[in-house]
Amino acid sequence: MNKYHLTLIISYLLFSIIPSHILSSEYSYYLSESIYNLYGARAVGLGGAYTGYYGGTDSLIYNPASSSVITRTGATIGYCRLVDFDMQVFNGASILTFYPYGSLGALFHRSWVDDIELRDNNGNLIDTTDISYNFIHLEYSFLIAEKVSLGGGFNYIFRYFGDEKDEEMIPNIGLLTFPASSPLERGCFLPSFGFSMCISKPYKLRLGMAFDFQFSKFRKMAILSDILITKDFLKPYIGLEVKPHSAVSIRGGLMDKQPIIGFGYSLMQYDISYAFAMRESGQTHLFDVTFYISADRYKKEKMQERYERWTREGRYHMSIGRFDLAIECFLNALDIKPESKEAIALLNTAKVEEYIKNGRDYYSNGDYEKALKSFNDALSIDPDNGRAKGYITTIEEAIKKRAEEERKRKEIQELVDKGRKHLEIGNYHQALRY
Description:
Order of helices and strands: HHHHEEEEEEEEEEEEEEHHHHHH
Strand order of the largest sheet: 1-2-3-4-5-6-7-8-9-10-11-12-13-14
Distance between the termini: 92 Å
Oligomer: single chain
């Protein structure tokens, strides 16, 4: 953490926490909590268990430390409708990355209902009015360690009930630990953990964890869970996402004990998400589209990510002696970056090790010709390889020794044959000479 980040933290404490205690509202819990039911089709489709996860603008309101993990600059437009209440919702969000200083995230949420009927206790119509609920969120986050992000932000909320206005500003802080890429492309297990906290009334703490399971290059599953802690209650959230293909996601979760389902479709430049919830209050439909502005940069980052994954996997296979698999990995890396000196050097090293390994096996089995060929192949790549030279010298001596033993064996066999012939004709004295 440098002086620049320290200055930002102090400024954040001064300009968000102090005003937040001035703005208060009797609807504070409703204003600050209902946004989680109406924003982010992916997050809602995962039951709102998003504090320990990252990816897309959905994570903004859950954990202010998440934006620095997202590598793409993009914008999200969303629409939500509560059918039974005839409530409509508009969501807009964006994340801007300022490497290496951090990332800035912003979102705007507006929900409204027109012509609500106000009735007395006897059911008589008194008046009609409009209700609108507006939510503005800003956050800034940065990396404080290689895989640890810290962030802070504030929510400015204002609600109109006819001519009456309630408003509130809630600062929050967050921390997120996310996994380094696994050296294995298949069968990897990637955990991430996060927490976020509102540091003004109503005080709330959200703890979250997520586990990614990578089954193959394109198929994976994520299990997510959150816990919301306040002074009055503790509330769990659970989510599950399955990706049968790299572009398709199937989601489900429990939010406020109500089941939710969702779907997603992703391509290079945009993501589409949908979520449906059947609540006690009625049906809720959410729909989001995210456009990535820096798609070319993202493509380069994805290619670099694939290249690094292949080289990491190749190094792993080399560490366990599977040089044949390492060679395949480094060849895949070279398909992505053909001019990479690193990949070429790693490929040559893996080939040399594979030739030496095969040469040792041939030598142990007594197949000196194949062993010599393997060690000479190693020297063709690395002419100064001392191990290959040493094995070649040993094999040449073994070949000479074998030839000498074979010569002596033939001489002995010739003498035995001559003695047997004299023995057959009864020339015993002559046979004894052999």
